[in-house]
Every structure is written in structure tokens, then in C-alpha cells.
User: Fold this.
Amino acid sequence: MNLIEMVTFPVRVANAFGEASIGVARLVSPGGPVRLVEQIAAMTAEDRPVGKAIAPGGVVDRVLDDQGVLARLTEVGGLLDRMIEPGGPIDRIMAADGPVDRLLAREGAIERMLAEGGVIDRLLAQEGLIEQLVQEGGIIDRLAEVMDAISHLAPVLETLDPAIRGIDDSAAVLAATVEPLRDLATKIPGRRRRGVESGAPRASPGRSDVPQNSGDPIH
Assistant:
């Protein structure tokens, strides 16, 4: 080491230490790698949703299991196989003059929607449906008022609940009280006979419906 190197050695050490300090500061800065690792560790903790998903026996394990969802989707004859097979749903959708062709054709559904005066224009026009929905006092505001009114009814219904329950209980007690009286009334002696007698017709005084035998021949 020559004299110049010896003289500049402390400067170079200080410079290296400063650069190292800057590097460490960048590592632990809020947007640095260390902070990112801490965030990933917090997200994958055992009590967090991602941690539960990647835990042994969790959602990821069940999806990737040999008999899991992914295996059943990708197996021969599985859902994906049936979707992409010749003549399958995707084949029919993408076929010439199929649904996609008709949607994207000139004067097709999408072009009619985007045309001047079409559905999109009418929706976004002044006084159109979207404006009617979001304007002050519009449909959404009125729905909010209705929901607010319904929310104010909830306490009233809660106060009525004990009274309604009391009515139900009173009706049950009354029914339990009347039932024994009804049974007792059916067991009173002579009640049925008197009822039959009261239902029989009475003969008018001085009149008899039965012909009297006067002893005279009938002419």
C-alpha cells in the first residue's frame, strides 16, 4: 500500500460505510424489500385468510389434491374436456355464424347498442334512465327514503311484539278455559232430551191436526 492509498483509506472506508448505510436504509424503507417481506409474512399468517388457504389441508391443498376440483376439471371427460370438445359449447359459440359472430356482425346486437340513438345513447342521454336514477330526488334517493322509513318502523314493530305475544297467550288461556266448560255442557243429564223437545212442533190451542172420530160417516 503506497502513501496515497494509506492517506485515502479512511475516506474510502467512510464512503463504503455510507453506501452500506444507504443500502440498508433502502432495504428497511417503507417501500423496500424488508417491508415487503414483512407484509407478505403478515398476509400469510396462520390466522389470516391467505395463511388459512395455503395451510396444510387448506383450500389450496384441496384444490390441488389428486381428487380435487382442479383434477376433476382437467381430467379426460371432465368439465373442461367437454367444454372444448368438437361440437361442445365453446365450439358452438365460436363457430361461423354462431353467437359471437352474430353479436359482432354489422348491424348486430353490439353495433345496435353502440349506434347513435341506441340503447347506450338512451341510457346516457339527458333525462335518460341513468340520470333519472342518480339525480337528486331521483329513483335511488326515493329508494333510500323508503329504506329509511322501513328502518324507522323496526322499533315500532319491536314494541308491538310483546303485545302480540300477550294476545296469543290470552287466546291460548281462553281456549283452555272454554274447552272444559264445553265438555261439561255435553255431560249435563237431560240436556239432549230437552233439546229434542224444544225442537218438536207445538199444536195450536183448539186445533188438532189429527182427524177426530165423530162417528159420522164421511160423505
Remarks:
- Residues 203-219 have pLDDT under 50 and may be disordered.
- Residues 139-186 form the longest helix (48 residues).
